[in-house]
Every structure is written in C-alpha cells, then in structure tokens.
Specification:
Elements: H1 3-10, H2 23-36, H3 41-50, H4 60-69, H5 71-88, E1 95-105, E2 121-124, E3 129-140, E4 150-153
Antiparallel strand pairs: 1-3, 2-3, 3-4
Length: 155
C-alpha cells in the first residue's frame, strides 16, 4: 500500500533516517488493523510481518508509541482527504447519522473523572437507556467513501 507513503511525500513530511520502520508503514499497518482485524494492532502487525509485507516490524510497545506520535498527522491527512472528496463531488445532498459513544453506563456516572458535565448525559432511544459520553456525528453522501466527522456531547 503506497497511498500513505505518497501522501507523506506530497506534504513534505520528514522523519529521522535512523528509524527502522517509517511513518508510512505505521499508517499502513494501522489502516490494515482497522479494515481487516477489527482494530487489533497486534494481529495486524503479526500479519504484516508473517507475510513479509513489512520486513522490519516493531514490537507492540514501540509500534503503539509511534502510532500515538503520528495520530494528529493521520487525523489531519484524513480530514484533508475528506475535504478533497467533498469538493470534487457534485452531490449537494447529505445525510447526518449519529451514534452514541458511551464512556460508562448510567449507574457509574458519579465515578467518571474524564468529563464532568450534565450535557454529556444522553438517551439511546433504540435501547431505551441513558448513557454518559459523546455522540459521533457522521455526514454521509452516497458518492463519497467518508467525510470528516465530529463529536458532540451526549444530549
């Protein structure tokens, strides 16, 4: 998969020449994990190494450190790709879908330390239960594979 490598070269991304595994390979493995292994990075790393797709695969800890180091870069790149798809598309109709991302169940709200606001308490009508967390708002267009998404408070 040369797509992440071409993107990083296009934006002029520089990295240390002493690295055994470059950032494009980290991104490729993360994309592979998301697409084929339900987000399991260790399975994706093992697959890429066993099939000689990436020869110098890092261990689990080092891979996670590097992945967290380029997380903002990946977020910016995917946002830019989404904006490019949005601009080149001739469709003007969008659907907005949202789904809850609960941090905890209703009974554990008082123990949550990450967010302390009533606006993050929401209701899932299909399950008839309350949750504490955020909603992910995803705009959808039939011609585009993805668009940038946003997180909103749970209510």
């Amino acid at each position: 998969m040369r797509f992440p490598d071409d993107l990083l070269k296009a934006i002029g991304h520089n990295e240390d020449c002493r690295r055994v595994m470059n950032d494009a390979e980290i991104m490729t493995t993360a994309i592979c994990a998301a697409m084929f292994f339900n987000g399991n990075h260790s399975k994706a790393c093992s697959y890429m190494k066993d099939h000689n797709l990436i020869v110098n695969m890092l261990d689990k800890s080092r891979f996670n450190q590097r992945l967290h180091g380029i997380s903002m870069l990946m977020n910016d790149l995917f946002h830019q790709i989404g904006m490019i798809f949005k601009e080149i598309s001739d469709c003007t109709e969008y659907l907005l879908d949202s789904f809850p991302v609960p941090m905890c169940d209703n009974i554990r709200i008082f123990h949550v330390k990450l967010i302390n606001s009533k606006e993050y308490r929401g209701y899932i009508a299909s399950k008839k239960r309350y949750f504490y967390g955020v909603r992910n708002g995803v705009p959808k267009q039939s011609a585009m594979p993805f668009l940038p998404h946003h997180y909103f408070p749970g209510c």
